[in-house]
Amino acid sequence: GTVPAMRRPRLDNSVRLFTQGYAWLPDKRRALGRRTVPTRLGGLPVFGIEGPEAARFLYDEDHVRRAHAIPEPVQGTLFGKGAVHTLDGHEHRVRKAMFVALLMDDDRIAPLVEGVTAAWDAAVPGWVRREQVVLFEEARVVLTRAVCDWAGVPLPEDEAPAVARDLTALVDGFATGGPRHWRARRARGRREAWLARLVDDVRSGAATTPQGSVVDVVARHRDADGEHLDPHVAAVELLNVIRPTVAISWFVAFSGHALVRWPRYRKQLAGGDPAFAEAWAHEVRRFYPFAPFIGGRAPQAVEWDGERIPAGAMVLLDLYGQDHDADLWGDPYTFRPERFLDREREIGAFELVPQGAGDPRTNHRCPGEQVTVAVLSALAVRLARLDVEVPEQDLRISLRRIPALPASGMVLRVHGTSG
Ligand code: HEM
């Protein structure tokens, strides 16, 4: 059963979890010379863990649960309240099945990729006409148009930039206090109200959406209790499809960064070989910092790696750290897409973890990984085909800022598309 401590979230000061950025747990591991690092946060014991075995440990619900584990400031911005991320057990499985059906199906992914590439191609002439563009900002508009269309969310042409700004604000503001955080909360309020109204209208017949669209499936979904989702929770889950798809803009901007830093890959990527494009997508997701860690709380006292983890303690899997673990990745700080072509065996379910580990059908692993890889490979090839100049700019990526991004957002002068 749950212990009293589980009912009382003590992570109100959760921003402190994030203030030291991506190097927080890796630095502690180095300092202690240990893979498992015990620490504290506002009186709450926290255990930072890392490695495939640690990932296996964390995804066992006897060891770690999500309920009462996700800090309010993260729910109020990134995920939304009542989201799939916060459920455990049977309730989680029933809600998760909805995402699996919507996202882990090649017949659904293909039209999304087509829509994204069509929106990119339609945007290029406008970029050519402008003096310069910020890749991150352009990618998010392209992705917003395509994902809303694919999901069955009506979006007037001229509203795409404002929606795109709000959707990236949700991600930009979860790990910080101050203006970025409040911007994210306002964006969430606006977009939940917008989508809850759409769900209401679809249910009442006042609006229509294509049969089988994301909006249609979410509006008709029945939860573990046999009931439809409350319109607000339905809006939260619609945002949990649309928001992370638009967040692929971070990886598009990182791809732009990698093409500037390692220009020798441009030709090969532009060639469009699907195997290389996929290897590129994997290496971008492995190498660049995005999701820092995941975790939950121990429902009962449990042992891991010689540590006694008390009931109610927080357990965090260091995603960024594991994706740079030298035992798993030779030369982890070298950007080398070929590492995913040369492999003798498939990537293990608990090895590459930018979007979680294990089996997404039964645990909390991201159900949008195929979508991410498919969309990112397609856009990276198009990016490599752009004929661009890269003006002087600040390309540094601070590991202290979550989420990280090249400081400039990747400014490009686009002349057209070559080859
Ligand atoms: C969960 C990362 C894209 C939908 C997650 C988790 C991570 C993650 C780390 C949590 C895993 C865990 O707690 O065990 C990312 C990154 C993305 C991305 C870095 C790149 C942009 C997507 C896309 C979609 C998506 C494109 C949908 C189209 C979800 C959902 C969950 C999730 C619904 C919650 C799953 C659950 O709690 O069972 N993602 N994701 N993500 N992601 Fe993604």
From TrEMBL:
Residues that bind heme: C366
Pfam families listed in its UniProt record: p450
Gene3D superfamilies xrefs: Cytochrome P450
UniProt-listed GO biological process terms: sterol metabolic process
Native source organism of the sequence: Geodermatophilus sabuli
Record-stated family: Belongs to the cytochrome P450 family.
GO-annotated molecular function: heme binding; iron ion binding; monooxygenase activity; oxidoreductase activity, acting on paired donors, with incorporation or reduction of molecular oxygen
Cofactor: heme
Protein name listed in UniProt: Fatty-acid peroxygenase
Keyword annotations: Heme, Iron, Metal-binding, Monooxygenase, Oxidoreductase
